[in-house]
Amino acid sequence: MNSINSHQNVSPIASAINVLRGEIDRIDDQILGLLEQRYRQVSRIARVKDVSTSHTLAMRPAREQRIVERLSAKARHVPADDIGQIWRSMMALSARHQRPYRVLLWGPEGARTALATLAAARHGAAVTATWATSVEAARAEALRGEAILIVSADEECWRERGGLDLIARHPTGCDEHPWALELGRVERPGGEPAAPSSSPDGMMPTLGKGVVACLGGRGSFSEAACLKLLPGHELLPLGDMEAVLRAVREGSADLAVVPVANSHAGSIEEHRRLLTHPELRIIGEHVMEVRQHLLGQPGACVGDVRRVTSHPAALSQCEAYLAKQAWARTEAASTALAAAQVAGTGDPAWAAIGSEVAAEIHGLGILERDLQGETVNETRFVIVERRHSYA
Hints:
By secondary structure, the chain is of the alpha/beta class. It contains 13 helices and 16 strands. It has helices spanning 2-8, 12-49, 61-74, 80-98, 112-123, 135-143, 221-229, 241-250, 269-275, 312-317, 319-322, 335-345, 356-362, and strands at residues 102-106, 129-131, 147-152, 165-171, 179-184, 211-215, 234-238, 255-262, 266-267, 280-289, 293-296, 307-310, 328-331, 350-354, 365-368, 378-386.
């Protein structure tokens, strides 16, 4: 009787939640079944390769990156960052299933937190990163195919690879030590170890120099991301994203910095589509807070404005504010270009949405600050380079 009463006392909301949880349980069972199929395939690959006699790790960095990029582009409800974390953890577990390895870190005290965070992002919770006891011991363990090294790029001891493969270069987000190297012995597409570096004497390529392409000119948020991530590079500002990525493919730029998602506006689908080009690969990412301001002629006020212009992503981020205004909207190729156009009109009826730096560069006033609202507004930028033969 008490059981009957307890069922009768369940609210409609609780009942609906129980049904949904039951559906999640069913989905979890399906995921487990697929994971077991994946593990069986991994075990078969390990037997074919006979990993017990190999000195390379069961890792294919290029293939793994392409998997994450492909799935991130297909996903509609799962954030790209979550896709990366889930699949990288799963692939790290699969690699350890074939051949156990660990991640060793090496760098100055000021880079330790950044390197540990990078290791977790790259290899997931499956692998615990530890600090190497010495350069020699870490290098020897990696050469035996028992470890991946994530090290600060400005440490002189790692400029000589000594038989290790450069898996990737990563921005750390640390101002004093902006780059990290991921080193190890990994497979080529044909199953052989990756080819040695083509750099003379096996030296690492020089980081922090070269040309980086970005969208928009001085005062754009892409420029700010470039200055943060690649402080030693020469900037090549271009008018649209196709031109930015074409510069990397054709060699007029070494790298590009591309905005791909925003916490308010979501994924920038056009940019993601362009990044699927087979000659390009993503080598790092950075999340930056973006503050959008209303920029207008000096001495003007919000009441003077009749038309606003900016990049479509900036307009989208400020939709809640703009919906309250009876202004015409015009799209621009970048926030920096929008600011330049408004400055050129001299018309107080025109305003742009952009950064404080853009206002200073173009001699505009800030009519209203933080149009994106009180919540944090963040944009995810990725660093892109031309794809090499194996990495």
